[in-house]
Amino acid sequence: LRCTYHGWKYDVNGKCLDMPTEDAENSYKENIRLIAYPGRERAGVLWAYMGPKEQEPELPEFEWARVPENLRFISWNFQQNNFVQAIDGGIDTIHSVFLHSTLDSHRKLDEWQEQGKRDGNPRLVHRVRSNPPKLSVKETDFGVVIGAKYRGKEGTDYWRYNLFLMPFYTMPPSGQDRKIAHAFVPVDDETTLRWVFTWNLEQPLSARDVAEMKAGASVHVQFIPGTHYPARNLSNDYMIDREVQRTLTFTGIKGIGEQDFSVQEGMGKIADRTHEHLGSSDIGIVAMRRRLMKAAADLQEGVTPYAALHGDVYRIRAAEVVLPSDAKWDEDPRPKEAMTARW
């Protein structure tokens, strides 16, 4: 790297190699070093390690990082709040019934459910306002699994498995072929980089797919040109359309991603947790926070999180399955099969 101000040049280890503003005989450059962190590139993403050199971990073996390049699309944007608030939203399995929903889907519940039956889509049949789920959590090597059980009919239940993966990754259940994941990387206490990973399991993404995601489709966002700042953001009230909010959607905000971080940023840059009112639907969030705090305490004692040293634990994906009502949510082989990464 060469400084654009005075031309000082550094190698990848932070050692100053050239100091053109000084005499050639001057050895001053030998005393100048920058702090340097090792970096690795994978799947078009740069990964930096900022811990002790002798404890550098494996890279996580995410499925999206293993599929061919033409099967994935990645974007990131700035988000103006603490990263844990973003994780809270990333693993909340219930909010989409409201935040991302249309008013018609609530007004026309029977019609909506009939459509789900015709399409074979259990989400439309079971994930409705009148059928709140019962949540269960389980700690794993990679983090926490949150199982949401939606009451079904004829001896079956619809289950959704949301994942929190150490230290800041989330995966919600998605389509059969197309999957999504997030990384909420803290820049500082009040700023987060919100990464979105979309990947197909078999069919390459079309040029139209990529163009639409670059324009803000799915959970990606539309940017202010030339930046990674969302065009719809806190400073402009996310361009809320009050008429749309009154007649069509809960928020009046265009874009699923923007709807998500509008409520996360709306808590303030750092939410005051002492004023929270956590309900039964928040047990996954509670488990995630406890896992993070335990990991922080362990690190202070010199204990490295298991996942940091075993990248293969990330070979997993979120899933949704229909199970018999008497099935054990965390032992039945069908969820495990659905959650196993192919790549």
Write a structural description.
The protein is α+β, with helices and mostly antiparallel strands and 343 residues long. It has 11 helices and 12 strands. A hairpin with a 3-residue loop joins strand 8 and strand 9. The two termini are 36 Å apart.
Largest sheet: 8 strands, antiparallel
Query: Which stretches are low in confidence, meaning pLDDT under 50 for 5 or more residues running?
Result: none
Number of helices: 11
* Gyration radius, in Å: 23 Å
Number of strands: 12
Category from helices, strands and their pairing? alpha+beta
Helix content: 25-40%
In a nutshell, what does this entry contain?
It is built from eleven helices and twelve strands.
Search tags:
343 residues, alpha+beta, eight-stranded antiparallel sheet
What topology emerges from the helices and strands here?
Blueprint: E1 9-10, E2 16-18, E3 39-42, E4 45-48, H1 63-66, E5 72-79, H2 83-90, H3 103-107, H4 109-119, H5 122-126, E6 134-139, E7 143-151, E8 156-165, E9 169-171, E10 178-188, E11 191-200, H6 207-214, H7 242-247, H8 256-265, H9 283-300, H10 306-309, E12 319-324, H11 333-339
Antiparallel strand pairs: 1-2, 3-4, 5-11, 6-7, 7-8, 8-9, 8-12, 9-10, 10-11
